[in-house]
Amino acid sequence: MTGTRAERAHATRELILTAAERLFAEHGVFAVSNRQVSEAAGQGNNTAVGYHFGTKADLIRAIARRHSGPIEEIRRRMLTGIGDSTDLRDWIGCLVTPVAEHLATIGSPTWFARFGAQVMTDPAFRPIMVEESLTSPSLVRIVEGLHRCLPDLPADVRAERGDMARQLLVHMVAERERALAEGTPTPRSTWHDAATGLIDALAGMWLAPVTPDLDEGNGP
Hints:
Blueprint: H1 3-27, H2 34-40, H3 48-53, H4 56-82, H5 88-106, H6 112-120, H7 126-134, H8 137-148, H9 155-182, H10 191-206
Pfam family, one: TetR_N
Domain PsrA tetracyclin repressor-like C-terminal: 94-205
Protein name: TetR family transcriptional regulator
């Protein structure tokens, strides 16, 4: 492939990625066809998505990886800064701040947070986002560091609160992104401040007391 042809192909891929991310964020993954993505990307050929990316799953993975690189760089930088910290907030910050900082860097409007929320609620495509997260070395280290700060938390409660933390992070960031796109008021004026508020909430959740299971063994 010549340089010019390769450049055109790259430009087309970028147009498709941007269009797909926006449409998936605004309408959901299932509701958007490859043809709609091609049209939104200004491609006369309705098979452009399949030609450049293959399946819809491949397209979703490409969108996720488009953002995961910059986010991973921020995580690595933050991990270097905290070292072997024993402060729970440091580790929670490494979860929250990279996403917020990345979205702030892109500039409004953004669609990635809403895209992630849509994919995470779609049973067919959720495993893609989970798989991409599990392949992040920095994310694995962050979770390990967070757990080291909570040695007395029972394993089942730790797992439950991990699910809660993921839901809160995914959907609160998406809600802020939606409000910014629609021009509606937000509780915090900047992504940095929004990250701080979310870190506060997550720290409180992780450190909350655990109620003894007085009815253990009596069924749901």
